[in-house]
Design brief:
Strand content: 15-25%
Number of helices: 9
Radius of gyration: 25 Å
Largest sheet: 4 strands, antiparallel
Order of helices and strands: EHHHEEEHHHHEEHHE
Low-confidence stretches: 1-57
Strand order of the largest sheet: 1-4-3-2
Number of domains: 3
Structural class: alpha+beta
Number of strands: 7
Helix content: 25-40%
Distance between the termini: 51 Å
Mean pLDDT: 75
Length: about 250
Amino acid sequence: MSFLRAQRHGGPRRSGCQVAAGKSGTGIDAGAAARSCGTYALPSLREALGEGGHSNPEPENLFAGVRYAAAKLPYTPKGSRAGPFYQYIQRQGERPEEYRFNAFLATRDGDEVEELAGDFPKRWHVEEFFNAHQALGWDRAGTCNLNIRYGQMTMALIAQAAIDGIRKRLAPPATNWDARHMATAYFEGLEGDVRVDGDTIVVTYYNAPDADRLREHYEDLPAKLRAEKLDPRVPWLYGFQLDYRFR
């Protein structure tokens, strides 16, 4: 379900394109992301309730008898041939002079109370993901070429998995650092060298933070992998093994 602050933002171009319209703490302008797919002017809630070409119920009648002051209207973004879409409307305030409205754009005709109270809060996990990992490349899109974008996203997910594995093996507060903080406060400060010893590439780090913790997990890595019945040879390193030292 896409989020709409009842203002004018770019809407989804086709069904299946989920767009969160509006800015959040992630620093991503989702309205700009929506406009990159095609611009549709969505009317404000005032227009949707009275001037936007929809049915014209009075607000007090629209919300009469509805639990938690929530209502639902069919909705079509201006210029869109996709859909159907639905506008879930939430009213806040107990007296008419205090009324404030939030609107949410959905691609399915569900129960508005269940969607708003149960499903919509799950989007917070999406915001947590981008807040923690957007520096890996999720905060920008250099091209609309899908092959390039898929490659970029694949590399970002691989980097995320690698960083997450290291982060879990560090002492607080590094365990809660986001990707940008890890880069500036940890990875950029590492010094070391790389050498080949027989069939093994040995990476040596000097003065690495939490060296004792890292040594426990990464030194003698080929032997640790064999103990877990895993082949330590890395195919994209021409079959070499990878091992680490901490000095």
